[in-house]
Design a protein that fits this description.
Blueprint (H helix, E strand, L loop, with lengths): L2 H12 L4 E3 L20 E3 L13 E7 L17 E8 L3 E3 L6 E6 L13 E3 L5 E3 L2 H7 L4 E4 L2 E4 L14 H15 L22 E7 L2 E7 L5 E5 L2 E3 L4 E3 L3 E5 L3 E9 L28 E7 H4 L3 E8 L10 E4 L6 E3 L4 E4 L3 E2 L1 H4 L1 E4 L5 E4 L2 H4 L9 E4 L4 E2 L1 E2 L12 E3 L9 E3 L142 E3 L23 E3 L103 E4 L24 E4 L18 E2 L9 E10 L13 E2 L1 H7 L7 E8 L5 E2 L2 E2 L11 E4 L3 E7 L8 E14 L2 E5 L5 E4 L6 E3 L5 E7 L6 E13 L10 E11 L4
Parallel strand pairs: 1-10, 22-26, 23-27, 26-29, 28-30, 31-32, 33-34
Antiparallel strand pairs: 2-5, 3-4, 3-6, 6-9, 7-8, 9-10, 11-12, 12-18, 13-16, 14-15, 17-19, 19-20, 21-22, 24-25, 34-38, 35-36, 36-37, 36-38, 39-49, 40-49, 41-48, 42-48, 43-44, 43-47, 43-49, 45-46, 45-48
């Protein structure tokens, strides 16, 4: 190009028409073409090492570096899309980043000329030589396509494709887009009015503040907002002018950075400053890969200071109305030093403003005071807290020191003004090592919530709250919960007239022996659950003045009050109560429980599980008026009430009960339990229902539907019931896992309906009552307990079983043998009792023609009357049958001493004479005196009838 053509080209461009320049045109040796550099925003420098110039940068890959019309139509390219070109490069062309120039595309690695920049000097923009380096070269020489106003330069034209000079398909598309882009420029205004640019400012920055000891780190983030534009292509043909569809797109230039300032003015303003080229020059922060920037502020520099920040995009757009301001004092008012001491500096404490959100290891979002996430429950090491002069409080102080488990002292608490505090819930919760806590100055006149305020202050032995104004408090739940070292607590002045919840208020105050709540106004209380739960040394409590008309929950209310000997709740109105589980659990010394059956309503109760369990010495319990129609859980309700001799549950409505597991287990004093009308159609768990009811004599389970329950939930129903001699089962009374046992031979039957004559178990087996049979004259077959339980699975009728038994016909006697008091003993001395006769009579028709036998066994050894530890040993006890002359050794096991068979007429009547003889040696008699032993004779039917 010569001077004439250069002047003509410039004149052409001044008309607003587009000028497109290709590879190696605007280049240092080209005198006139190089003069187009400023029109493109380029400074043209020598380009080869041999000239001492600036080496260019080359590659076969390019990528768009900004969004706009040029990369939208007709082909759409994204910023992360790598495009293939034939090798191209820049040379001696220095991009100035100013004057409205736009670098649309850059080369992508791997770069060419990588070795040529190492040993040369680099000419900077002022033509000064500086050491060459890849950093400058990549930043300043890396461009493939630039535009400025109506000028464009693309580094294509260096390519060879398919053996001929050509561009790649990607280059062809890029060139097409560039032509469309430049064709839209307005002729008369040099295209500037119609060049599509991002004119929208970024959004208002957001700030995230984290604190670490004496420093706050503010992370600033904003997103660039784009400008919408619409375009179409106009084409003139020989016949008509045609237009394409209108296309909408959004241009975003990307975030350039942030401008901020810190001052003491909450209404301060930060203003980005533009230089002569329109570039914002006072950026403080450049965004990282996420668009964020960070500012660190020391506590000393941030107290009573404000940070103002505004975002700027790459097109230098910003909006003063989108400035963000934060009060640094809100984040720098506390510190945890290297000695793990928490200091709170002058500040108005307010949970609603001061709390922070953080995500725990389980992924749940938690809310706490700002020092908590750094020093959480799992790793807290804070050992002391200091409240500086000037600290005030307003609103909520919930969880202020919770749970600083290693904190041993709080300094300056007496200076904290609490007159405007409304919430002290959990304020000291979990301060396990605090041995003293002075809250005597607290003004609580505005407080409405004190729940769990002192919970788990395990080391406090005293706490002076007697001055507290509680007239506005509505919640005292768990207020002193788990204060296990408190030995005294005065709440006698508490105004509870507004309180609705006192659940667990004194729970687990294990060392308190007295709590005066006699004045408590509970007229608004709805929840008393666990009120005295775990007060194991509390001797008594006066609740006679309690108004319980609105209470719905009394679960665990007196549980574990192990020192109570009596409790008066005669005034309790429980008509609204729905939960009574564990209410009197383990009141192990309580002998007397006074309540009014007409006031102690249970018509709304759904849970009575373990209600009276472990009330070992409770002598009487009137539950005859209990309405259990809504109760679903009666598990272990009366378990281990071993002193109860009677309990009337005959009227219990169990139609909604699902669990009666162990309900009467361990009730060792009960001889009868009337449950024969119970509806158990919904019960899922019968386990251990009557286990260890050792005096229970009879059970009628004929109405029970146990069949529907899985086997593992109907086990041990009658385990350890050695006195149970009568059992009635119905068609669904399946008890195959009940552990029903056979009687021990000779066990006396306790028949409450027929105390005389006395009956005994004849054999270790049971007998069906049978047709026409009675409890003491059964007519059915005999069978083992295991057969009864097995048959219950298939049986579908009602049957009654009793022990195989006999009455007075079984002979029991004590044989008294007098060796003579202080008389010499003789070797092999034989002592015989006088001849006696016993008669065996049996008139049961089932015995006709059946064999029988009489067994004898020593059931009590020959012991000295005055000292039971001394007994005759060494020689056997012989039984002599005078009819046969046979003798039997009864010392070790029972022996058959007579056999016979029932005769005709369905009866047997035989008289048998007998005597006893004992042979002794002096060495076998430990002392002289009167010895008494016992031999038991038992009638046994060999046939099993």
């Amino acid at each position: 190009m010569n001077a004439t053509s250069y002047a003509a080209t410039v004149a052409y461009g001044q008309t607003g028409r587009s000028i497109i320049l290709g590879h190696d045109t605007v280049y240092y040796p080209h005198t006139y073409l190089a003069q187009f550099g400023p029109s493109l925003g380029l400074k043209i420098l020598p380009g080869y090492p041999s000239s001492g110039g600036n080496v260019g940068l080359g590659s076969t890959k390019v990528k768009f570096s900004m969004d706009g019309f040029l990369n939208q139509y007709p082909y759409k390219f994204t910023l992360d899309q790598t495009l293939e070109i034939k090798f191209s490069h820049s040379s001696g062309q220095y991009y100035l980043y100013q004057g409205g120039a736009q670098k649309w595309m850059e080369y992508e690695p791997p770069f060419s000329f990588a070795g040529e920049a190492k040993d040369i000097n680099y000419l900077d923009e002022n033509n000064n030589q500086v050491p060459g380096d890849d950093g400058h070269r990549i930043a300043d020489n890396n461009f493939y396509l630039v535009t400025k106003n109506n000028y464009a330069m693309i580094q294509t034209g260096h390519s060879i494709f398919n053996g001929m000079s050509a561009c790649t398909p990607d280059e062809a598309k890029i060139i097409a887009n560039m032509i469309y882009y430049t064709s839209t420029l307005n002729m008369t205004t040099h295209g500037e009015d119609h060049t599509v640019k991002d004119s929208a400012a970024p959004e208002k920055p957001t700030t995230t503040v984290t604190t670490d000891n004496d420093k706050a780190t503010i992370t600033i983030k904003a997103a660039d907002l784009g400008t919408d534009y619409f375009y179409r292509v106009k084409a003139k043909t020989a016949s008509a002018t045609k237009y394409s569809d209108v296309v909408k797109s959004t241009i975003t230039s990307g975030l350039k950075g942030y401008v901020y300032q810190i001052d003491n003015n909450p209404n301060g303003v930060v203003t980005p400053i533009k230089d002569v080229n329109g570039e914002v020059s006072n950026l403080n922060l450049m965004p990282d890969g996420t668009g964020s920037g960070t500012v660190n502020v020391n506590r000393a520099d941030g107290i009573n200071k404000y940070l103002h920040v505004i975002a700027v995009d790459k097109n230098n757009n910003f909006d003063p109305a989108k400035m963000q301001t934060i009060n640094l004092s809100d984040y720098l008012w506390w510190n945890v030093d290297s000695n793990n001491v928490l200091t709170i500096y002058p500040h108005e404490l307010n949970w609603d403003r001061d709390h922070v959100n953080w995500v725990d290891t389980s992924g749940y979002t938690q809310q706490d005071w700002p020092w908590y996430p750094k020093h959480s429950v799992l790793n807290t090491e804070i050992v002391k807290a200091i409240i500086s002069p000037g600290v005030t409080a307003r609103g909520s102080l919930i969880k202020l020191f919770s749970p600083l488990r290693k904190m041993t002292s709080i300094e300056g608490l007496e200076m904290l003004d609490t007159s405007e505090v409304t919430n002290m819930a959990s304020m000291f919760n979990g301060c396990q090592l605090l041995t003293s806590l002075d809250v005597s100055h607290f003004d609580t006149s505005q407080v409405t919530d004190m729940q769990y305020m002192f919970q788990s202050c395990d080391s406090l032995t005293s706490l002076h709250v007697e001055h507290f104004d509680t007239s506005k408090v509505t919640n005292m739940a768990g207020m002193f919960y788990r204060d296990s070292s408190l030995t005294g607590l005065d709440v006698s002045n508490f105004d509870t007239s507004q309180v609705t919840n006192i659940a667990s208020m004194f729970a687990t105050c294990q060392l308190l022996t007295n709590i005066d709540v006699s004045h408590f106004n509970t007229s608004k209380v709805t929840n008393m659950a666990g009120l005295f739960n775990g007060c194991m040394n509390l001797l008594s409590v006066n609740v006679t003045g309690f108004d319980t008309t609105h209470v719905t929950n009394m679960a665990y209310m007196f549980a574990y009050c192990k020192q109570f000997t009596n409790l008066d709740i005669l005034n309790f109105d429980t008509s609204e109560v729905t939960d009574m589980q564990y209410m009197f659990y383990w009141c192990g010394k309580m002998t007397d429980l006074k309540f009014d059956p007409d006031k102690f309503k249970t018509n709304k109760v759904t849970n009575m599980a373990q209600m009276f369990r472990l009330c070992y010495v409770l002598k009487s319990l009137d539950v005859s008026k209990f309405d259990t129609s809504k109760v679903t859980n009666m598990q272990l309700m009366f378990a281990d009430c071993s002193a109860l001799k009677e309990l009337d549950v005959s009227h219990f409505d169990t139609s909604n009960s699902t669990n009666i597991n162990g309900m009467f287990s361990g009730c060792a004093g009960l001889t009868s339990i009337d449950v024969n009308h119970w509806n158990t159609n919904k019960v899922d768990n019968f386990n251990s229902l009557f286990q260890s009811c050792t005096k229970l004599t009879s059970l009628d389970l004929s109405s029970f539907n146990i069949r529907r329950t899985p086997g593992y939930l109907r086990t041990w129903i009658t385990k350890n019931t050695p006195s149970l001699w009568k059992l009635t089962l119905g068609p669904n009374s399946v008890i195959e896992e009940a552990l029903l046992t056979d009687p021990v031979r000779g066990t006396q039957i306790n028949d409450l309906d027929q105390p005389t004559p006395i009956y005994y178990a004849t054999n270790p087996q049971w007998q069906e009552l049978g047709t026409g049979g009675t409890p003491h004259d059964p007519k059915g077959p005999t069978l083992k307990a295991s057969q009864i339980t097995t048959d219950s699975v298939t049986r579908r009728d009602v049957r009654t079983y009793v022990w195989d038994q006999t009455g007075w016909q079984t002979f029991y006697t004590y044989a008294l043998i007098d060796f003579g008091f202080q008389k010499p003993a003789f070797t092999n001395k034989e002592v015989k009792s006088t001849n006696q006769t016993f008669t065996e009579t049996d008139t049961r028709n089932a015995r006709q023609g059946k064999t029988w036998k009489i067994e004898a066994s020593v059931t009590k050894p020959m012991q000295l009357d005055t000292d039971s530890t001394k007994s005759i040993s060494g020689n056997p006890l012989w039984f002599y049958d005078t009819d046969t002359g046979n003798k039997y050794n009864l010392t070790s096991t029972a022996q058959t001493v007579h056999t016979g068979a029932a005769g005709a007429g369905y009866q047997d009547n035989i008289s048998i004479p007998w005597n006893l003889a004992i042979k002794t040696n002096p060495i076998d008699i430990p002392a002289t005196g009167h010895y008494t032993g016992q031999v038991t004779f038992t009638l046994v039917n060999d046939s099993g009838i």
